[in-house]
Amino acid sequence: KHFATGDLQVIPGISSMQLACARLGISWHDGLLASTHGRGLDGVADLVKTHPKVILLTGPEATPAHIAKVLLDAGINDKQAAVCGNLSYPDETIIRGTLAEIAEKGQINNSVMVITDEEI
Predict the structure, then answer these.
(1) In degrees rounded to 5, what are phi and psi of residue 12?
(2) Collapsing DSSP states into helix, strand and coil, what is residue 42?
(3) What is the Cα–Cα distance from 82 to 99, expressed in whole angstroms?
(4) Alpha-carbon distance 101 to 71, whole Å?
(5) Cβ(96)–Cβ(85) under 8 Å?
(6) What pLDDT, on a 0 to 100 scale, did the predictor assign at position 87?
(7) Is residue 76 helix, strand or coil?
(8) Contact between residue 108 and residue 85 where contact means Cβ atoms under 8 Å apart
(9) Are 81 and 114 in contact (CB under 8 A)?
(10) Residues 6+ positions from 16 with CB-CB distance below 8 Å
């Protein structure tokens, strides 16, 4: 509105979900993208039960360990998961495992959690 089109340069970035999938070497196009950041976990178990790949933004209250425990309590124990934390920072971490293994991990900050039917 205030600038002419020629005066602007748009430099798009990639999302943390896209970066997480790139780091894991998997496609994000066939995943269900959702966020638990600032939201409750209502409905997350149903999403994971009905979709072969769910990619979640996590949050301070909905940590990957907490999400994994909620899914295990819902009877979901046959999924694989990966948690990508602090992506693009020097302390970036990637943890892969079963939901039971992820449930045992501590806090992983600024993370994306991928839950899938296949090994990651």
Answers:
(1) -75, 150
(2) coil
(3) 9
(4) 12
(5) no
(6) 93
(7) coil
(8) yes
(9) yes
(10) 57, 84, 87, 110, 112
Name the phi and psi angles at 32, rounded to 5: -90, 120
Please report the pLDDT score of residue 92 as a whole number. 94
Tell me, what DSSP letter sits at residue 12? Answer: -
The tens digit of pLDDT for each residue in 65-118 reads 999 999 999 999 999 999 999 999 999 999 999 999 999 987 787 899 999 999
- d(CA 120, CA 106) in angstroms, rounded, equals 20
Taking residue 49's Cβ as centre, other Cβ atoms within 10 Å add up to: 13
Long-range contacts of 4-10 (CB under 8 A, 24+ apart): none
pTM metric for this prediction: 0.87
Q: Distance (Å, rounded) from C-alpha 23 to C-alpha 18?
A: 9
Write down how long the chain is.
120
Q: How many Cβ atoms are within 10 Å of 22's Cβ, its own excluded? A: 14
| Beta carbons of 64 and 77 less than 8 angstroms apart | no
